Amino acid sequence: MVSRTLLLDCGNTACKYQYGEEHGHLDSTEAFVQLVERIEPEQTLLATVSKFGQTLGECLVERALPHRKVRVRPDWQGLKLAYAEPERLGVDRWLTLVALCGHPRPVMVVDVGTALKIDALDGGDRHLGGYILPGMRLMRRALVDDTFALPPVDQDGALAPGATTRDCIANGAVLALAGAVDKARAQFGPTPPDIVWTGGDADRVRPFTAEPGQLRPALIFEGMRRLMKDADYMESLA
Ligand SMILES: Nc1ncnc2c1ncn2[C@@H]1O[C@H](COP(=O)(O)OP(=O)(O)O)[C@@H](O)[C@H]1O
Ligand SMILES: CC(C)(COP(=O)(O)O)[C@@H](O)C(=O)NCCC(=O)O
Ligand SMILES: [K+]
Is this complex's ipTM strictly greater than 0.90? Predict the structure, then answer.
């Protein structure tokens, strides 16, 4: 069943899909319609935190294509969420925790997308809370939008102090995000957690942190595949 299920992970910048061995990005509803007409999935599992993802959900309804939308379940398989209102946690964040559930040591996930999200588990499937920061592009764009003199910057950054405006901006974002990740690690208790990285911009930050950790680009899909194996959970979405 999993192999004939189309998995969609719609973030605020990019909508990613997996279908068996195939994966890619979808940047329009037309591209989405072409995809489903070509592959004819048995069903679609949609995880979205974006308007575009919501539109794809409507598109599936209009075409009467079988689909389910991932919802946060506060007590999934003993995964205890730190939020008093668990349903407020972004499904993308929850899916990274689902993927890491059962990790035998404290572990911190760093998801570098539109926003940079940090969440940690204590090694016993208890969520210790997290952080939400502007991601790489948002951080740079905020400077352009709210100043008169600062230009848009596209180049990759590094940790060294800049000697041009562009380098100062590019490297400032790297410094802020890599620094935040290093600082966050110390907030999750006396045992420094393992680090797992995901998100489209992970490799723009990861090389500049103290601990390289592990890169798992498809972590959200790993979470979705785990949920697919849980018939009760899938049933609860129907
Ligand atoms: N094919 C691609 N399309 C869009 N963004 C991409 C692509 N490949 C890498 N990226 C990078 O990934 C970032 C988005 O990361 P992602 O984790 O998908 O964010 P979100 O889940 O918030 O949409 C972009 O800012 C861009 O730098
Ligand atoms: C924090 C987010 C905007 C991140 O979105 P993304 O960077 O993946 O596009 C998303 O996880 C979200 O809408 N969360 C709901 C609020 C929360 O998690 O507390
Ligand atoms: K995301």
Answer: yes
